[in-house]
Backbone:
């Protein structure tokens, strides 16, 4: 019995050391969540620290984890690639705002066809991923590409195996353009794929696509550009065929109606406008409405304010699309309106 | 002097306490993991009932989950790994102990044991970049061509040669378990008293007969223990499998088809699993793997425990 007590005391001592170590590191801003924006958040954190001396520790544990951590208040902010429904935000006393944008790009491996040559439309892409179009010379594909000689090769469908924001945008787009996709599969960070092979991460999808003749896959915009993959053009809502590039992503962002989106719940897929890339979307920050410590809250919001105004170039260098300034202004209005101390005083703008 | 004795008594007490605390911590961690998996997996198990084990659907959008594809993939890839890895490991162990020139022995032993030191992510990348293109180009077309048309067995070798799938995953696992099984086998075969095998050779037994009728029966429990250790490793391996298995929630007869395993599913989907039932289903999968692995290791301990008095006598 006495032995057991000693053992417990030993365990308690170890636990105590653990907490002490945690408390020591709480001076910095902490965040956790989505993996997709991690490179740009990390770079911003590094630059912000160099300028202000304030450190930010962002852990890319995934959107699900980010939501759990912010609900439990173990971090200052959470991050999710999928916007939360207003009802879920209310339930947990959270607000959300879009921080940075990216998108998904279909890539193909057809002999003799280079980047930007193949044209696809939303319904055709959905039919391929539903397993209804199985050969590249199918009339539906050939009809969009009268100038190309397409082989009768079988189409090998590749998708992401791991849950990801890229998959969410891609399936959300397919749900918008194909009622059948919406009914049979739907949209989420991972779905029940009707056909195809799952690769792990962008690199897994890119590798399978590169190696398998006749393959089609989808990767993050930045990944497709940096690795010069054979991306396809997509027909957008206005009927234009567009290439995935900074301009077409910017067009999708500029044409988005953030103003009327409740709680910024807006996915930028299939946006109207000439030149808009149809599969793009923002990554979101989750934040508590009621904050105990105004000073700390201001410190966190100051970082995001800095990122909106000074982080654009960094984002572009990493092939993300920065939020337009008018959207940033809308977000800061929301901070002023919604983020309060326990006794109801607004926290933003910071003095 | 007296002070010194007292101090050493205090030190002794403290040391005892610290070691006991460490031991308690291990058990506490084990119980804690089990309790957590039980508690968090319960909502899914309650919702889907025993059907969870047999349902093949895995649909995060409609929140309908079934564990069968993952359980099936786990068992099939492990079976392939055992089928290919265990005979090779026994062969290596026998060769090193009985046939190998003395000069070569340390090199071979270290080489095999170094296989165990390679991180599993490296196996995964090697599988993705080297093994799977090779299988796709050279091995799988031959398999489908030669064995595909056969009745019965043919069903195992159907489909397009992607180089990705349960067979590839099983092959990688076979290489990964090799060092563990070989190391145990080498030790137990090395422990066989020289008298026994010399007696067998003296009555004119061939090397095969010595292996089959003397070494294997004498060390069978130890060998089985080694096999179980390898199996435990194969069942739980995550990273290497995720890269090459194709990650599709489906049950296919063909070994060339993509599949998934429990640990690969967890690694892939845990981070972005939003929603209580989704997360709970993943944890329930974890519980199933925990139970399977626990059973395998318990059997291994039982066999190894029985084997040691044999080897000593």
Residues:
């Amino acid at each position: 019995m006495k032995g057991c007590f000693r053992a417990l005391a030993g365990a308690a001592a170890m636990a105590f050391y653990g907490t002490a170590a945690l408390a020591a590191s709480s001076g910095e801003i902490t965040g956790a969540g989505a993996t997709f924006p991690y490179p740009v958040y990390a770079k911003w954190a590094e630059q912000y620290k160099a300028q202000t001396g304030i450190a930010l520790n962002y852990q890319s544990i995934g959107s699900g984890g980010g939501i759990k951590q912010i609900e439990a208040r173990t971090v200052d902010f959470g991050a999710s690639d999928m916007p939360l429904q207003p009802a879920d935000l209310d339930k947990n006393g959270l607000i959300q705002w879009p921080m940075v944008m990216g998108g998904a790009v279909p890539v193909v491996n057809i002999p003799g066809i280079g980047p930007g040559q193949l044209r696809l439309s939303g319904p055709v892409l959905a039919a391929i991923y539903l397993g209804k179009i199985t050969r590249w010379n199918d009339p539906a594909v050939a009809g969009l590409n009268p100038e190309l000689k397409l082989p009768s090769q079988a189409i090998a469908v590749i998708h992401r195996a791991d849950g990801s924001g890229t998959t969410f945008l891609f399936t959300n787009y397919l749900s918008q353009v194909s009622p059948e996709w919406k009914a049979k599969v739907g949209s989420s960070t991972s779905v029940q794929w009707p056909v195809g092979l799952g690769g792990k991460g962008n690199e897994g999808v890119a590798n399978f696509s590169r190696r398998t003749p006749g393959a089609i896959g989808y990767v993050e915009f930045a990944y497709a550009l940096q690795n010069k993959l054979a991306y396809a053009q997509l027909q957008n809502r206005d009927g234009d065929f567009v290439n995935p590039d900074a301009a077409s992503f910017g067009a999708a962002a500029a044409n988005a109606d953030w103003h009327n989106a409740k709680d910024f719940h807006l996915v930028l897929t299939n946006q109207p406008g000439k030149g808009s890339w149809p599969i793009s979307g923002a990554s979101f920050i989750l934040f508590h409405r009621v904050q105990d410590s105004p000073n700390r809250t201001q410190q966190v919001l100051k970082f995001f304010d800095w990122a909106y105004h000074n982080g654009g170039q960094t984002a572009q260098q990493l092939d993300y699309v920065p939020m337009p300034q008018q959207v940033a202004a809308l977000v800061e209005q929301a901070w002023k309106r919604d983020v309060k101390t326990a006794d109801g005083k607004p926290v933003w703008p910071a003095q | 002097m007296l002070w010194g004795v007292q101090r050493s008594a205090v030190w002794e007490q403290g040391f005892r306490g610290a070691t006991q605390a460490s031991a308690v911590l291990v058990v506490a961690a084990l119980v804690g993991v089990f309790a957590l998996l039980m508690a968090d997996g319960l909502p899914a198990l309650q919702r889907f009932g025993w059907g969870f084990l047999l349902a093949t659907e895995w649909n995060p959008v409609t929140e309908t989950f079934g564990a069968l594809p993952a359980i099936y993939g786990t068992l099939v890839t492990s079976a392939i790994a055992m089928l290919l890895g265990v005979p090779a490991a026994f062969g290596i162990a026998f060769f090193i102990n009985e046939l190998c020139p003395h000069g070569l022995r340390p090199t071979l032993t270290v080489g095999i044991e170094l296989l165990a030191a390679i991180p599993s992510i490296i196996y995964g990348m090697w599988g993705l970049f080297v093994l799977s293109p090779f299988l796709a180009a050279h091995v799988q077309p031959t398999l489908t061509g030669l064995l595909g048309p056969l009745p019965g067995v043919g069903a195992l070798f159907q489909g397009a040669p992607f180089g990705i799938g349960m067979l590839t995953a099983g092959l990688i696992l076979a290489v990964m378990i090799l060092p563990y099984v070989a190391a145990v086998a080498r030790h137990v075969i090395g422990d066989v008293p020289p008298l026994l095998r010399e007696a067998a050779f003296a009555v004119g037994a061939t090397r095969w007969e010595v292996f089959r009728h003397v070494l294997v029966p004498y060390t069978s429990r130890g060998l089985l223990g080694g096999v179980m250790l390898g199996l435990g490793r194969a069942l739980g391996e995550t990273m290497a499998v995720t890269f090459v298995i194709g990650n599709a929630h489906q049950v296919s007869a063909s070994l060339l088809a993509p599949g998934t395993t429990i640990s690969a599913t967890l690694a892939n989907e845990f981070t972005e699993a939003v929603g209580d039932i989704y997360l709970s289903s993943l944890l329930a999968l974890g519980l199933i793997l925990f139970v399977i692995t626990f059973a395998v290791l318990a059997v291994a301990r039982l066999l190894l425990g029985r084997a040691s008095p044999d080897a000593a006598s």
